[in-house]
Design goal:
Peroxisomal Thiolase, Chain A, domain 1, 5-stranded mixed β-sheet, 11 helices, binds acetyl coenzyme *A
């Protein structure tokens, strides 16, 4: 049976930095002191006006492919974990597939809210282990800022935008060791963006109440549940992968709140140096939080070949997932200086191919019409 290993990684963060003080300046009844002491968040990044989820996802994916020195055409499957897709349909993954020029790849979105990336990583690894794919691009990308009510201090200070990606490949040695996924839909109402789907349809078909497009949340109940669930899920994958807690080199939890992260680490008996956190800089970037944290852990020298790493996440659903992996690739390898040039060329070719396909479809449609009009 083939195993799945991570061979490339990349992230993208929007350039606009919004510090806590900005909320006070906007007239919100809050303070830097409240936000940083209750959440650990000091600032977050927000996407620009013309920056959609797929734009951030493509940038993160390009970087992951560059690190692996892989071609987009080598990818068999693209999974984008997101709860803020560009459109209801088509999938954001299809848009990413087209922009990358990943001609052979299947593409789908996966929505498990903030837990989405770990879900997607587990499912991507499963496709490789089943022999159905040789390379899977797994992306976590979200733009929750679009769904924040900037007058609601209990939610708008918590989230940020961003994207992170990893490229999985088939290998003879295990990289992904084990994973678990879970859901408890009885808590669906604790965290939701009610409008925009079929329950509160925008055409009013299912009642006049639009349900609202803003995120609403019962923070304290999520907090209590998350502190228990994160450690329980992590313990399960540590046990099932045959590792002892002391053999865990790095723990990367979902970056939602520093107090949740610290409490989970305490429950697991992990010392501070084994826990990665960057929530202070980015807030909760939803499905992007774990891949961004992984990329930053790598960049800051916290990951070495042979390390055992545990990822845990939780989110709306309620949903949760955890995954244990062994890091198998050297960090210090630098991609060839030709790789970015090749990627630019491939992206341009992908855009040309895509434009030609559209043109072909238009020509074919107009020929069909003429044929019908001529009574053919
Ligand atoms: N500034 C000042 N005061 C605030 C703010 C703010 N930004 N937000 C809330 N408060 C007030 C509340 O109104 C409340 O005031 P009251 O006592 O007068 O009613 C008081 O602070 C305490 O509110 P709590 O909700 O009890 O505060 P708590 O310590 O629980 O912290 C927080 C709130 C930060 C939201 C915390 O509960 C939390 O992080 N929960 C987890 C949320 C989370 O992780 N969600 C993401 C899930 S992932 C996904 O799928 C997207």
């Amino acid at each position: 049976m083939p195993y799945a290993q991570i061979e490339g990684w990349g992230m993208h963060l929007p350039s606009r930095i919004v510090p806590n003080e900005s909320f006070v300046k906007m007239g919100l009844d809050t303070s830097d002191e409240w936000i940083s002491s209750r959440t650990g968040i000091e600032e977050r990044r927000l996407a620009g006006h013309n920056e959609a989820t797929s734009d951030m996802a493509v940038k993160a994916a390009h970087r992951a492919l560059r690190v692996a020195e892989a071609h987009a055409s080598d990818v068999d499957l693209i999974i984008v974990a997101t709860c803020t897709p560009d459109h209801i349909m088509p999938s954001t993954a299809s848009l990413v597939q087209n922009r990358l020029g990943a001609r052979r790849a299947g593409a789908l979105d996966l929505n498990a809210a903030c837990a989405g990336f770990v879900y997607a990583l587990a499912m991507g690894a499963g496709q490789i282990e089943a022999g159905r794919a040789g390379r899977v691009l797994v992306i976590g990308a979200d733009e929750l800022s679009l769904h924040l009510d900037w007058r609601d201090r209990s939610t708008c200070v918590l989230f940020g935008d961003g994207a992170g990606a990893v490229l999985l490949r088939a290998a003879v040695e295990p990289g992904i060791l084990t994973s678990t996924m879970g859901s408890d839909g009885s808590g669906a109402d604790l965290l939701m963006i009610p409008g925009g789907g079929s329950r509160y349809a925008s055409n009013g078909r299912n009642g006049s109440n639009s349900g609202g497009r803003y995120l609403r949340m019962n923070g304290s109940q999520i907090f209590r549940w998350a502190t228990q669930m994160m450690s329980r899920a992590a313990e399960q994958v540590i046990r099932e992968s045959g590792l002892e807690p002391e053999r865990i080199d790095l723990f990367i939890p979902h970056q939602a709140n520093l107090r949740i992260i610290e409490s989970t680490a305490r429950r697991l008996g992990l010392s501070e140096d084994k826990v990665f956190s960057n929530v202070g800089h980015y807030g909760n970037t939803s499905a992007a939080s774990i891949p961004i944290a992984l990329c930053e852990a790598i960049a800051s020298g916290r990951v070495d070949e042979g390390d055992n790493i545990v990822l845990t996440s939780f989110g709306a659903g309620l949903s949760w997932a955890a995954l244990a992996l062994r890091w198998t690739v050297p960090i210090e390898g630098h991609p060839s200086r030709w790789t970015p040039i090749r990627q630019t060329f491939e992206s341009r070719m992908a855009a040309v191919r895509s434009a030609m396909r559209r043109q072909q479809r238009r020509v074919r449609a107009s020929l069909d019409e003429r044929f019908r009009a001529d009574g053919g």
